[in-house]
Amino acid sequence: MFVNPSVVDDPFWRKVQTISQHAAFQLGFELDVIYGEGNRHIQYQELKKYLEYQKKPDYTILILYPGAALETLKLLEKYKVPSITLEETISGEEKQQIASPGENFKSWLGEVYHDNYQAGYDLAEALYNSSNNNKSLKAVLVNGHYGSESDMRAKGAVDFFSSKGVTVAQEVHASWSESVSTAQALKLLKRHTDINIVWAASDLMAIGAMKACRQACSESQNIAFGGFDWLSVGLEKIASGEVQASVGGHFMMGAWALVSLFDHHNKHPYWTEHKKLVIPMGIITKDNVHNYQWMKSNPNWGQIDYKSKSLHLNKQTEYQLHLIPKVWQKN
After folding, report:
1. Structure pTM?
2. Residues with Cβ within 8 Å of residue 37, at least 6 apart in sequence
3. Which side of the chain, N or C, has fewer Cβ within a 10 Å radius?
4. CA 109 from chain center: how many Å?
């Protein structure tokens, strides 16, 4: 079972789900999907309802929502459902309560995630490089929700900006929403009229901030915008020069979780010897966006050979993690 933490039409999670469904088919999994509707309470209740009334899944892939991680893992432990979690979303006291995979909850096999700190750092660097004709730079951060994923992205950005003497005027949270980002950015741009960089934790929020700039920025104000997720609309904005950068590649995380579960099911010791699988991220700017145009045209993710990534089938000791599936690199 794949627990999509968002809504049916969320563009990023729809892509994660679609790729996961292709991987599941190739690997011989029947993949059920339920939705968390972007709310920790709804996700918990949907998961509870499924486990109570449906046939128990062999495995579950899900994100742990801050504030619901402990109860979610207790529920999966109660039903003895081995699980892989996506992202590193839990921090602080809640992280201490759940500990690491396999410690307090034996059914929690491991985590598949990317380095959010480095990704946030890399996005900040790309935006800085696109603005380096201005020696006195000031940035604002438009972050997602309150959680470790967002915190680490922002920390990477702040650390890079600090190393270059870029002032971070303010950070706001826009809950991954384009419309909320527009509203937040309007206030930011009116409050800070000398902003050069808007760093956002998603493409949609970067585009939301860009729309705010159309209303609030002067014609002479030159602002660099950037986000995460490699959405088609984000790539279009990079190609047109309206957005300067996007970090992505993590839409493969559900597929990587399924590959690792296929190996686990076939007695490969990866998840007995490891607690995490860290997947790479990359950055798209105007300099390389032409290499990624194939992603805008609804590509057939089933053309990827997911079995070729299996340790069990290929007798490899470590996963060969590639940012872009090789089938697409020639494009």
Report:
1. 0.89
2. 6, 7, 43, 46
3. C
4. 20
Q: In sequence order, which ranges of 266-325 are alpha helices (DSSP H)?
A: 270-273, 311-314
DSSP 57-96: PS-EEEPPPTTTHHHHHHHHHHTT--EEEES----HHHHH
CA distances from 132 to 30, 135, 243, 255 (A): 50, 7, 16, 38
In 252-316, where do the E strands start and end? 276-279, 282-285
In degrees rounded to 5, what are phi and psi of residue 153? -60, -45
pLDDT tens track for 238-256: 999 999 999 999 999 999 9
pLDDT tens profile 154-201: 999 999 999 999 999 999 999 999 999 999 999 999 999 899 999 999
Q: Are 140 and 104 in contact (CB under 8 A)?
A: no
Other C-beta atoms lying within 10 Å of the C-beta of residue 255: 26
What is the CB neighbour count within 10 angstroms for residue 232? Answer: 17
Q: Backbone phi, then psi, for 157, in 5-degree steps?
A: -65, -45
